[in-house]
Design brief:
With 173 residues, the protein is mostly helical. The protein has one domain: Ferritin, core subunit, four-helix bundle (Ferritin, Up-down Bundle). 73% of the residues lie in helices and 0% in strands. The chain is built from 6 helices and no strands. The chain is elongated, with a radius of gyration of 17 Å.
Length: 173
């Protein structure tokens, strides 16, 4: 169990750094779309921390990996889509400020993905494997959100014709 709890401790620390980064980036950007994305990512990272701490406590108490169920809240894409449709009337949504922050956030999500991939490869318990597989999906979702907003802000004129925009093609409307 020591290796499992070590992985959870590392994961909790990583997610805490993510919360701090996203909150900092949200306060430093003037673009309402990027700001909303950063705040929503911070909230999702907090949800991860809470779940990780519950699992950690379960492991300490029962010495058994609990079944992790994904709480289907609002998916990040749908939250950002609703905001985008309201905010697109505001020209500041096209303001490409803090692009470096988006790039830093994408790098962080890639690191998280790689870390969880390694933990999955070492996982022995079926529930632990499910846990890391779900985390990989969520980290990928975070990366896609950041990449879409980055592309929209840095190549707005190309956005409407770029093949990559099909990930979130609703931004073309």
């Amino acid at each position: 169990m020591a290796k499992i709890t070590d992985a959870l401790k590392i994961s909790i620390d990583f997610e805490k750094r993510g919360v701090g980064l996203y909150l900092l980036l949200a306060t430093k950007t003037k673009n309402p779309l990027a700001k909303r994305l950063f705040y929503n990512l911070a909230m999702q990272e907090i949800q991860h921390i809470l779940k990780f701490e519950d699992i950690y406590q379960d492991l300490k108490d029962n010495n058994k990996w609990p079944r992790w169920t994904v709480e289907e809240g609002e998916k990040l894409e749908f939250v950002i889509r609703a905001f985008f449709h309201e905010a697109k009337k505001d020209e500041s949504i096209k303001l490409a400020d803090n692009v470096k922050g988006l790039e830093l956030a994408m790098q962080m999500e890639k690191k998280g993905y790689a870390m969880y991939e390694q933990f999955l490869a070492k996982a022995k318990d079926a529930n632990e494997k499910l846990f890391y597989k779900e985390l990989l999906k969520q980290e990928n979702s975070h990366y896609e959100a950041l990449a879409n907003v980055h592309l929209y802000l840095t190549q707005t004129s190309d956005w409407f014709t770029d093949e990559e925009s099909k990930v979130w093609k609703w931004m073309n409307l």
